[in-house]
Specification:
This protein is of the alpha/beta class. The protein has 10 helices and 12 strands. The protein has a domain of 61 residues. Strands 7-6-5-4-2-9-10-11 form an 8-stranded mixed β-sheet. A two-stranded parallel sheet has the order 1-3. The longest helix has 20 residues. It binds iron/sulfur cluster (2 copies). One iron/sulfur cluster binds next to loops.
Length: 336
């Protein structure tokens, strides 16, 4: 049984769980839909200073699980093949791709929602999530879940938004925004972007969006098992501390006994690695959705993940590279 008072003294748990929950509620209260727009006092700032930390810590002591952020990985298929994709799409071939079914992702979410008390922010990702044919139905489902507070979607803008999807976002009470990655500066993009059409539809329908234009990416380096010691793997995690906890169903896995109905992983690299090498290879890294509520707290205070051995050394400076360099090759999980 986990000692929750000790858990609250754990700095990693504070950083990964308590602080992101506080930040989300602060930005929610302070945002366009927040109460701050009604009151003249800086309501959100006062809440943050005097209340939110105590509030979330009390909920932990009561055994309530509030997930601050969760990425739903719908597919590892993408319309692009970026050599430095953070979600490892460049390592998937047509024969080992993952795409969940609507029923499968809903089954995983139902199980997750039966264990947790809230999820502040869900982000729908891929690969390219618009390749998931039942996206409008998934939005309907997310919209009706009381414990899910908001969601958004990340797209590379290579697939135009159909009418039904636009309508779903327009009517949704929980959709925060559409996040569009701007890949115009890619040196060798092979397919046309549909940004103009998408942006015009979003503006016409008054749907919130963010348009993420950046000048360079960071090189994630090759992904392969480095064979570091346990201490060095833990150090690598502390130097990275990526906050993108991601959920995948276990559909299509040869051996799914370790998480028959899906799992939550520390980051999308970890979830993709479990697809490429099997769940057994990463036993202990993920949260089996059939686990007890206690395991959720444990997961957020865990600092050893076998997948962190596959990443570059996060203590070293990172190289800047052009954005979204495309590759034709399926990369292998080995040193080149
Ligand atoms: S667009 Fe590029 S970075 Fe984004 S998911 Fe596809 S391959 Fe990865
Ligand atoms: S696998 Fe570990 S080191 Fe790599 S990105 Fe994820 S959390 Fe960071």
């Amino acid at each position: 049984m986990i000692n929750k008072k000790q858990l609250l003294e754990n700095q990693l748990f504070q950083n990964r769980y308590i602080k992101p929950n506080i930040s989300w509620y602060f930005s929610h209260l302070n945002g366009k839909r927040g109460i701050a727009r009604i009151f003249k006092v800086p309501y959100a700032a006062l809440m943050k200073k005097f209340y939110l930390k105590k509030y979330f810590e009390k909920r932990v002591l009561e055994g309530k699980v509030d997930i601050p952020y969760l990425e739903l990985v719908l597919t590892t298929r993408c319309t692009l093949r970026c050599e430095s994709c953070n979600n490892l799409m460049q390592y998937f071939s047509p024969s080992n791709q993952y795409t969940c079914t609507l029923e499968g992702i809903i089954e995983s979410l139902e199980l997750l929602l039966s264990k947790v008390d809230s999820i502040a922010r869900v982000r729908i990702i891929g690969g390219e999530p618009l390749l998931f044919k039942d996206l409008p139905q998934l939005i309907d489902y997310l919209d009706t879940q009381k414990k899910i507070l908001t969601f958004d979607i990340l797209t590379n803008a290579t697939i135009d938004f159909k009418e039904d999807l636009i309508l779903k976002f327009k009517k949704s009470r929980k959709a925060r925004k559409i996040s569009i990655s701007d890949y115009r500066k890619s040196p060798n993009l092979k397919i046309p972007l549909k940004q103009e059409s998408i942006l015009s539809k979003l503006k016409q329908n008054n749907i919130a969006f963010s348009y993420n234009t950046i000048d360079y990416w960071y090189d994630i380096d090759k992904i392969y098992k480095r064979g570091r010691s346990k201490e060095d793997i833990i150090k690598n995690y502390y130097n990275c501390q990526m906050s993108c906890v991601s959920l995948m169903t276990s559909e299509g896995l040869e051996n799914k006994q370790l998480a028959p109905k899906g799992a939550v992983f520390v980051c999308p690299i970890s979830s993709s690695l479990s697809r490429l090498k099997g769940l057994e290879e990463f036993d202990g890294d993920f949260l089996n959705l059939e686990d007890s509520k206690e395991r959720f707290f444990e997961f957020y205070s865990q600092d050893f993940y076998k997948s962190c051995d596959y990443c570059r050394d996060f203590s070293q400076p990172i190289k800047k590279i052009p954005i979204a360099i495309q590759t034709d090759k399926v990369l292998k999980l080995e040193k080149y």
